[in-house]
Design brief:
- The protein is an alpha+beta fold and 104 residues long.
- The protein has a single domain, classed as YggU-like (Conserved Hypothetical Protein Mth637, Chain: A, 2-Layer Sandwich), CATH 3.30.1200.10.
- It is 25% helix and 37% strand.
- It has two helices and six strands; from the N terminus they run E-E-E-E-H-E-E-H.
- Strands 1, 2, 3, 4, 5 and 6 form a six-stranded mixed sheet that branches.
- The chain is globular and about 35 Å long.
- It starts with a strand and ends with a helix.
């Protein structure tokens, strides 16, 4: 199984499939698509209007990974379910934290 992120010199780019308007904010693990690419499955209660769902995703990831909110930002897929989220920090530590989602 491939990992749902790409390491960078200043952190990682995390690939996420976001479901807005969910019953609760949560991370549902890692899923591999038919094309072989992996992404983190996430759900947020926020609606996909005016960037509310993206902001909720950024807050949830920051809290879950233990990084400041300012270190997390959606860098592509702003209006799509499939997003790339840039997380700044120690790439090795962030990778370890994300890989823990795969085993849960």
């Amino acid at each position: 199984m491939s990992v749902p992120f790409r390491p960078r010199s200043d952190g990682i780019d995390l690939f996420v499939r976001l479901t807005p308007k969910a019953a609760m904010d949560r991370i549902d693990g890692v899923e591999t698509a038919a094309d072989g690419r992996s992404h983190l499955k996430a759900r947020v209660r926020a609606v996909p209007e005016n960037g509310a769902a993206n902001a909720a995703l950024e807050r949830m990831l920051a809290k879950t990974l233990g990084v400041p909110g300012s270190a997390v930002s959606v860098v592509s897929g702003g209006t799509s379910r499939l997003k790339t989220v840039r997380i700044r920090g120690d790439a090795a530590e962030l990778a370890k934290s994300v890989e823990a989602f795969s085993s849960s």
